[in-house]
Each structure stands twice: as structure tokens, then as C-alpha cells.
């Protein structure tokens, strides 16, 4: 026996060479007992106390003593040796693990003990709340398992000093008491317990998805999962409840939900770190910190948004990532087109959009008398007043002959932060005369056999003083053509001498100084058979007021009287008509030539208001007129607001004749009252210098203005200017005034691009016109603007003004180009005589060029009237699509209106670039063309405007002239048989 023990001991010693005292445990294990870490004796309780388990101290490989238990009673049968540990506190564990390291002797290697030798031992536990129970009966222990060695050692192993250490781990649970004892039962094995470690498992503190999960003891069951709720790490917030499961083996499983870094922080290395200065993070769900967008900044760490730079803003709906923006600048180039009581306003977008895409426009309408007040609800806007997306609006139902100011505000999403006058542009205008609107209803107050007493309300928009009403009526059964008319100044009339029991249809209309309004809808009333009046109500024509008296009987009785009265009715109609005719008077005003006055000063007194010189403040000289300086200044008339005016002065030392001629312009101008005719404020004749004071036109004369703004306007704006001039000319021709010198230089333009006809001096047509040329008949005439019949035999009429108007249209579309360029006056006369007409300027819509050609019809009767021109231009403005096709896309206009010009003939027949340049008066560019490689005209026809600029032809008017000539050339080539157009 002693020999065996000795052998075992020897083996244990040998094994101890491989044992380490390093006590490092996996992080998810909490050790409750480790026999190797006990200093001194273990002093566990062995039973029997003698001859059973024995505590033996051995050295590990670091020479640190460790305590072991051994037993080796393999030769004696019926062994029952118990070894019990001390009480082990359970702490929080519900399931504990027992790791046993042991060595076991192979029974086969001890052949003489094979009957009694065992190769297992039993492991027990006993739960108890008490530390240090004295004696525990065997039966109180519960078995955990029978432990067998994976490897047992033999005598040979001892000789070879081979370590055969077994490690077996068993778990036990669910534990419920405060602690427990373990017991090892040996039933006859040769065994050494090298170490015993008891531990439980924990899932260690972990951070997943920015949520922190604490140390968590595993569940009681081997398969149980403990659900743990995480808490968000610093500077983060719960996005979705963070959860994880702690598995029985101490590992975390299945993270669910998450936390997100708060605004102002971003995730870095599983933490939420603050955004740096100049950066921001606005939403917990957004990515990382971002740099402050344009025009914004942040001055502290952890910013959730960036503040806007001064003068820049964010709207409520702007995302923090969007750059800060600012309100737009004012719209540009506001122009107005007045059409009776409607106005078309158009403008160009502002220079500064503020960096936003939500630019819109609001319209403010003010009616201005002594003071301005906002327009009421009766004014209509199309498409709307506010939030306009396109730069145009038409305003309707204004009052006639009234001053209005329209402000167009450019607005965007941040305008409300800093609204200011720099965001608006305004225009002041006067509406035209307009006929009254329709009489809205008609009623019949009394009905008798022969009389209907009608009354009606005033039209909603009288647009002036109603001079009279006209009632048109006819028997329903008869044709509308046999109508009768009654006129009255009041809003009621008795229509007499009617046929009894007859339905009549009535229309009524009102008249003001501007003419008649539209007839009302039709209303039907029926006379009755009663001699005394009954009340009647009008119905619209489709509805028949049928049910008057069913008295067929009465009808029969009255047949005789009926026939007689019907005859009388016809007679009295004739009488009535002739009486009414007498009321008709002409409303048209005719211009009076001041030179028909015996004393021309009388005309001045009649048509021009005398202004006291003290009311005028001259500010600066703006030009030189034929009689003296032209100045700008201010006029303050008592009871009126101060206004800017232009002042023409008569130079000192004038003759009486010059004074008369000078003032004749005021006598003419003073007769006109139209928004497209320069308005005369008055004259100063009682002191010197003699002055003519007129409204001030900020942009001066049209030709210079266009040249200064070459290419800057939309076609609609240009047509708007033309429309204004045509409207002014219509007014003049309606008054039988022939201008004789209509040209862009004699049109003035105000700040709203409104064009007004000016220059009504009497003498200049013959004497002082800068363009004037003496004709063979002696008079001085502006040849390029003047119709052939006026040049040839001084036939000046509104039709010759129409010719000049066509030239003005051409000047407008070519931005102030000189008509017929450098051609001499003689060549112009000859070319026009031969049928040459100016080609459409570059980008000129075909429809406008066609209108010009119409104005240049040789037969003056074939030319359109100004009223037709106004209508035509209105139509084009209303349908801008008609302005799309430009002459660039067209071939030659109608052959009958544009026969070959001298220029064209030249270009088609002469092949060289040099000769062609000569014909267009631009031979100075010969070298430019040669140097750029343009050897023949075939190449030239492909030239682009940019190429010309590169070649050194910088004048845009010369470029245009060249392109126009090329178009002509091409068109000419198309008409030459057998020639292919090189395009
Ligand atoms: O082209 P402008 O600037 O416009 O130069 C001439 C100059 O005076 C000599 O006629 C200007 N002018 C004439 N009448 C007016 C006016 N009512 N408002 C502004 N400028 C005017 C014209």
C-alpha cells in the first residue's frame, strides 16, 4: 500500500512541472473558489479522516507550492472516501461550473489490483445557507456526475515523466441557497485532485450600437438567454430600444435597436464626439458632422445648425444643409402696356436671385389721385396678383383715365426677413379712356297696352360720366334688323306707342365721352291689354315671358283697335328715329393748327397753361434743342406734388418769329392728352427765358437709348415699345394730326420704358430736322423715314406717318441701327423706288417684319391704319408664340413686297468678298476677311457673329449689317436658276 502511494506521489510531482500558477481567467468567468490560489492548507474535510483523501503539497513549475488531494486505495475493496470542500458562497450565480484538474492511474497498469481498482470518482454538492455546517450526511449530497479520466497514466509514463493531467468541468444549477459544498467520493481509484476551480459565467460589459450593456450573470439554465436592456452612451439618445441577450456561455447574442449620437455630435470609435467649430450636425439620424454651408458659420463646438452671415437668411422650410440665401434684387426693365382700362406689365428677372430657386413676384396696385391708395378688390389680375412665377401680369377692370402706380416686388423664401424698397420696381401710368361696361340688368316697372316703362342700374364700371343711354328694341316676332332706338340721359324710359299683347326684345347700352359700351343682354317684355299699368320683370331672350293674361276674348274684342294702333306705332317709330338722330353728336376731337390763329399767342393761351417761373427749378442741361438749351428740373405747382420736368428754353436774342415757332410746339402738344404722347405741363411766357415745360423722360430719345442697350430687351419688350408708339400715333391720326417726322430720335422713353411721341415743332420738318434733306421741290425731308409720295410731291398724310412708323419699327428691332445703313439718300430713294425694302433685322420675328413691309406698301391706301397696327401688335403680344419665328429661320419675305435690292443684285452677281464688302459700305474690313481665310463669298455665307468678333469686327451694328446682307445674299442665290445654296 505504502509503495503504491509513493508511486502516485511521484507521478504528481512529475506532473507539477507542467502546472502554472498564473491565475488568468476568461473575462466572462467569475471565480468562487480556486484551490491553487489558496495560501497554506486547504483543510477540506475528509472522511474517513485517516486512510482516505490526504492533502499533499507540491510545487508547480514556478516553484510555488500548490495544495492537492490524493487517494490511492486500489487494493482494498469497498472504498468510500469522501472529501468535502468548505462552504462556497454562491453570490449572484444560479449555475456554477466546477473545473477539476486531476490525474488517474490506469488500473490495467496495476494487474495485481484489477479486481478492486477503479478509474472514476463521483462529484456531489449540497446547498446550504450556513457556512461551516459541522456534519453533513452522505445522503444530503446530490450527485453531479461520475467523473472519469480521459487519460490515465501507467508505470511507463512515470518513467518518461509524461504529464497526463485531465481537466473535467461540470455545471450545476439552479442554485437557490446562499452557498454550497462540493464533495468528491472515491470508490477505489488512484487519483490526485491537482486543482479545483468553481466559477460562474457572466456576459461582460459591452457597447453595441452606441448602447452600453452591463455585466450580466448568465441564466440558470444551460439554454436560457437573459434579455438585457442597454443604456445609451454619453451624448447619444435612444433611436430604438437597445436590447441584447446574454447566453449561458457568457457571450452576448443578437443586438437589437440602437442609440444615435445627439445633434451636435457624431459617432467615432463607438462614442459620440462633439462637432468642431465650423461644423454642425442637425439630426441624430444624419451622418457625421458637416461643414457649415455657404454664407453660414458656427462659433462653438457641438453646433446643431450654423448661423447665417449678416444679410443672409434661412426660411422655415430650408434644410440646415442648404446655404443661407438673401432676398432678390428688384425686377428689371418693367414696361407697361395700357389698353383702355387694362394694363399688361412685363419685366425682366432681377440681377440677384438671392441664391434661391423660389423666385416669385407680387404686384401692388395703387390708385393715385392727390394721394395714392391701394386698389380695391374690383381690380382683376391675370394669372394672379401674388406669387407670380412668370415676369408678366395683366391687370383688368381699372378705372378709366386714372393714374395708377404698380409696384412689382421680387420675392423669395427669405424676403420677409428683410423686405425693402430695393426689391421692387414701380411704374406709374394713366389708363386710357374706356367705354362704360355693360348695363347689368333691365326691368320693367309699368306695362300697359302701348307702353313699357323700363329702368336699369348704372354699369358697374361707368369709366367716366355717362352722357346718355341708348335703348334698342324690336318686336320679338320681327327680325332684329327692324329695331328702333330711344336715347335718354336718365336710367329709365317709357317706350311708347307699342302694339298691345306683343313681346318686345330690349337691349340697353351707356355712352361716355369715350363712346358706347357694349349692349346689354336681351330682355323681353310684353305689352298687355290693360289701359292702366301693371308691373313687369325682364327675362333673357331665351326665356319667354309667356303668361300674360290668357284673355283671348279680350284680344278678339280689341282686334280693331290693335290694327289701328299698330299702324300708328310704325309712324311714330319714324318720327322718334329722326328726333333721336338730332341728339347724335360727334365725340371726336380734331387738332387745331395754331398757325390758323390770326394771333398765334392766342393759340398758346388756349392750349398751354401759363406757369409761374418761381414754380420751376432748373437742375441741369440735358441737351441742345433747335431754339436753345433743354434742361431737366423740378416743377412744384400749388396743391400738387413736385415732379421732374424737361424744360426747353428759348435762347436770348430771339426774333418774334422764332418765339412764335418755339411756342407753336406747346400749342400743338397742349392739345394732346394721351399716355404715349409727351405731356405738356405748361409754358413760361411772361418772363425770360421763355420756356416749354413737359414731363421728364428719364431715358431720353429712343434711338440713343436702344443703341446704349443693344440686345438687352426681350422681343415682347420691344413690341411693347412699338405698341406704345403706335397707340400714340393712332391718337394723333384720330385727331387728324400728321406728324411728318416720326423717327426713333423723336420718341422719348421714360424710366418704365414707356415710349412717347414728341417733337411737335412746326418749322423743323422743313428747316431744322437734322436728317432733313432738301428735295428737288425745295423742302427739307428726312429721306430714310419718309414715304415716297411725301418725298416726291409732299403728300404728307397719316398714311405717310404709317410708312415712317414702319421705319421706327425697324429701328426698334435693330436696336437703333441707321435705316439703310451707309447708303446715300439718293441711293435710298432709288432703291425704294425700285422696290427694295429693308430686310428684317437680326432675330426679328417674321410677323413684325411683315408688318413693316405692310407699312411700306407703295400705294398708301394699302398701308394699314394705326388702329389696325395697334390691334395687330396687341394680338402678337397676347400670343407670344407668333413672335417665335424669326427672319433668321425664314427665307425671303413675300416677293411682291421685297423685290431684288441693289445690294442683293450686287452680291449675287459679283463673286468677290471685296466687292461685296464695298456694296455694303464696309470695305474697311477687307483685310479682316482675307486674313481670316475668307477668299470667296461661298465661304462667307457660313460666317457666325462670334467669328466676326474674333476677326476684329467688333461693332455689333456692322456685324448685324453683314449678317443681314448674307441673308439677302443667300435668298438671292436661291432665286438664281441652277445655283445651289451652300448652306
Ligand atoms: O436724346 P436725349 O437725351 O433726349 O437728348 C435730347 C435733348 O433733350 C435735346 O432734345 C432730351 N429731351 C427732350 N425732351 C425731353 C424730355 N421731355 N425728357 C427728357 N429728355 C428730353 C432729348
Structural account:
This protein is α+β, with helices and mostly antiparallel strands and 983 residues long. It has seven domains: 29-203, Jelly Rolls (Sandwich); 206-261, Sandwich (Immunoglobulin-like), CATH 2.60.40; 331-430, Immunoglobulins (Immunoglobulin-like), CATH 2.60.40; 443-527, Immunoglobulins (Immunoglobulin-like); 595-695, 2-Layer Sandwich (Phosphorylase Kinase, domain 1); 700-765 and 782-883, Transferase(Phosphotransferase) domain 1 (Transferase(Phosphotransferase), domain 1, Orthogonal Bundle); 913-974, Orthogonal Bundle (DNA polymerase, domain 1), CATH 1.10.150. The protein has 19 helices and 52 strands. Strands 1, 3, 4, 7, 10, 12 and 15 form a seven-stranded antiparallel β-sheet that branches. Strands 2, 5, 6, 8, 9 and 11 form a six-stranded antiparallel β-sheet that branches. It is elongated. The N and C termini lie far apart (126 Å). Mean pLDDT is 84; it is low at 1-18, 534-587, 888-910 and 974-983. The protein binds 2',3'- cyclic AMP (ACK). 2',3'- cyclic AMP (ACK) binds next to strand 44. Pfam families: EphA2_TM, Ephrin_CRD, Ephrin_lbd, fn3, PK_Tyr_Ser-Thr, SAM_2. The chain crosses the membrane at residues 543-565. Keywords: ATP-binding, Cell membrane, Disulfide bond, Endosome, Glycoprotein, Kinase, Membrane, Nucleotide-binding, Phosphoprotein, Receptor, Repeat, Signal, Transferase, Transmembrane, Transmembrane helix, Tyrosine-protein kinase.
